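Recall that a protein's primary structure is simply its ordered list of amino acids. Everything else, from secondary elements to tertiary packing, is in principle encoded there. The following example makes that idea concrete.
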Amino acid sequence: MTTSLPLISAGAGECCTPVTGGVLAVEDAQQLARMFKALADPTRVRLLSMIAARSDGEACVCDLTEPVGLSQPTVSHHMKQLVDAGLATREQRGRWAYYAIAPEALSMLSNALAPHTVPVAAATRIDGEARAE
């Protein structure tokens, strides 16, 4: 059974507006904050990178414990945080859980941090520096 959260709604394109592009809606800010909070732990970042580095794009929790030096319940807890944030998906196969990266979520995070560029026509010179209008 595959477990994935309905993280990205039908109007998710709007959430991908860069943080620097204007004021985010409350819901978009909350969604991004959940994702960033999940990534605020170095072990979780390592777990995601280990899954992404695998040729098949998925990893059994049993393959993740030794490289991070943590017990299976601890790794499962970290992976639950990543799944709950929408950064990974979980599929139960027998007694083991298999995880995969949610590429659309990582893309959304990347787009959210993309610098907002001001069109050249919208910039004016004030005191010798370009300023957005």
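Residues 17 and 112 are 6 Å apart (CA to CA). The radius of gyration is 19 Å.
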